Amino acid sequence: MNIILFGPPGAGKGTQAQLIVKKYNYFQLSTGDLLRNESKKNTKLGKEIERTISKGNFVTDEIINQIIKDKIRSLKFKDRIIFDGYPRNITQIEYLKNILNEFNQKIDLIISLNVPRIIIEKRIVGRVTCDKCNLTLNEFFNEKEIKLHPCGEEHFVKRNDDNLETIMSRFDIYLKSTKPVLDFLSKNSNFHEIDGTMEIDKITAKIDTFLNF
User: pLDDT, tens digit, for every residue of 53-75?
Assistant: First the structure.
């Protein structure tokens, strides 16, 4: 089944997506990762994306829709995709439905991680990512795991957009643009909201109940 995973920046979407990938052999289609990878390419599009996300803003629907479509077309993971960070508005929902329909797929499960602003701030300010395996941990909550990580402690780096001003901007944009999406999708029987402040393993167990239903 294809999964849409919602949650504000720092809600733990990436962590849960990585766990699903490992346990169920899924592919995490993270718009954040896709855009960061594209921004590293010294192209006109890459530079435009870098300017946008560095200010905490979202790229245009036209850009992200095309990137998503190109990725789905090239994927071998049919019906095993986790959409992390997409869709962000009603227009993107309809676009995603059309794309999946084109490739004989559909949206099977929608999960929203609900986390308050104060927790989000602390999570993101302390967030570091391994530049070798892409594992995300937190300087405040995962000090031991960072020191013992197989890739080496020195490989954990902060993302350029992980600062308080950017966090607040992205959080406000998320609430404004995504709330109508959640309100729209919450009417579906396959929509589930989870308390994102719970321990990681408890959130994982909750998600497992939906995947194994």
Answer: 777 677 889 889 988 998 898 88
